[in-house]
């Protein structure tokens, strides 16, 4: 049986484009951008979700894909102020003369940029951009993982990277993530990234998870771990009461970063 093509209006077309480029867009942000009521945006998103063009969430929408991350150059500018705030907040938790892992991601890169006031750190990383950001510090000792370089985002992955990470035991593990499920499951897209992150979790005395609010609406298919594997969650917006209960049960400390205006 032939089906008619789905007809969408120009605003709905722009909503699809924004969601695909940003990974998550809230109803409030869309309403402000298009100068319409939030209820209008909810109807648009509901219709588009029914057509399979995006995924509806409480408060906003995300792309449908669970197998492919947003492009690195788009992630660099997505929620930049929030990521910088998270980076500063996380950096304040790291004492001078500490040892730490730093993994892949634009939020962990924001964290690395916030380490300028620290002294005598020992850093192990599989993120080439992180290594570059801290390379000018003569009092930092930086170990870059061996392995295969992924040019699109500076990630160093593969068996050699895992072996390098597994050769160290640090006081802190600072990791980013691609998604967090409602039950607290930590999710990511790429198996090699997941294996590296698990190695960091296993070899860190205290784990700091850096995740802006959009990560709570993204559901990649790969499981990294759970809330029991981390000690601190640093994010930019308050979490739901239900999620706060999960954090308390897992003995995770929640930090809400303050975004500079």
UniProtKB/TrEMBL annotation:
<feature type="domain" description="HTH deoR-type">
    <location>
        <begin position="8"/>
        <end position="63"/>
    </location>
</feature>
<dbReference type="Pfam" id="PF00455">
    <property type="entry name" value="DeoRC"/>
</dbReference>
<dbReference type="InterPro" id="IPR014036">
    <property type="entry name" value="DeoR-like_C"/>
</dbReference>
<dbReference type="InterPro" id="IPR036388">
    <property type="entry name" value="WH-like_DNA-bd_sf"/>
</dbReference>
<keyword id="KW-0238">DNA-binding</keyword>
<keyword id="KW-0805">Transcription regulation</keyword>
<keyword id="KW-0804">Transcription</keyword>
<dbReference type="InterPro" id="IPR050313">
    <property type="entry name" value="Carb_Metab_HTH_regulators"/>
</dbReference>
<dbReference type="InterPro" id="IPR001034">
    <property type="entry name" value="DeoR_HTH"/>
</dbReference>
<dbReference type="InterPro" id="IPR018356">
    <property type="entry name" value="Tscrpt_reg_HTH_DeoR_CS"/>
</dbReference>
<protein>
    <submittedName>
        <fullName>DeoR family transcriptional regulator</fullName>
    </submittedName>
</protein>
<dbReference type="InterPro" id="IPR036390">
    <property type="entry name" value="WH_DNA-bd_sf"/>
</dbReference>
<dbReference type="Pfam" id="PF08220">
    <property type="entry name" value="HTH_DeoR"/>
</dbReference>
<keyword id="KW-0678">Repressor</keyword>
<dbReference type="InterPro" id="IPR037171">
    <property type="entry name" value="NagB/RpiA_transferase-like"/>
</dbReference>
